[in-house]
Design a protein that fits this description.
Number of strands: 7
Mean pLDDT: 90
Number of domains: 1
Number of helices: 3
Order of helices and strands: EHHEEEEEEH
Low-confidence stretches: none
Strand content: over 45%
Length: 146
């Protein structure tokens, strides 16, 4: 069964500054909790990452997958779909939506993950909390500290 996770935050930066951090995949292991390794496999015609391999691990559960990215116009965010996955994850879809906010950029994060393993409810909720915390809290901290 696919699990959906969603959250929103406001980041004190322009959408372009937020996109710069989101698309700097090589830096994810430095700030994105649970991301162990990343590698850009392909770029699009504008030189942006189009396929990125990731190795992740959290609470003794690990996965490896390659995500394909599509970009929204005018630094409006990006979406992703897993091309291949192994370990604890069967498939992933998601997006970052960036909109001008009252004080910077409103960032909405959504992801739907189909797991290859069964997790107890408590572990599942903890994993979802960690994903949102990293996707939004870690991103906010990284962008605003630059």
């Amino acid at each position: 069964m696919a699990e959906q996770t969603e959250g929103t935050t406001e980041i004190d930066a322009t959408p372009a500054e937020v996109m710069e951090v989101i698309t700097d995949f090589e830096a994810y292991p430095k700030w994105a909790q649970g991301v162990k390794k990343t590698e850009v496999k392909k770029e699009d015609s504008k030189g942006r990452p189009a396929e990125v391999f990731m190795e992740v691990g959290q609470m003794g559960v690990g996965a490896k997958y390659t995500l394909t990215y599509k970009y929204k116009a005018k630094d409006g965010g990006l979406s992703w779909t897993s091309k291949d996955a192994s370990g604890a994850v069967k498939s992933i879809k998601g997006e970052y939506v960036l909109e001008p906010g009252k004080k910077g950029t409103k960032v909405t994060y959504r992801t739907t993950m189909e797991l290859a393993i069964s997790l107890p409810g408590l572990m599942k909720r903890q994993a979802e909390k960690t994903i949102i915390n990293t996707a939004l809290g870690g991103l906010k901290k990284r962008v605003e500290s630059r």
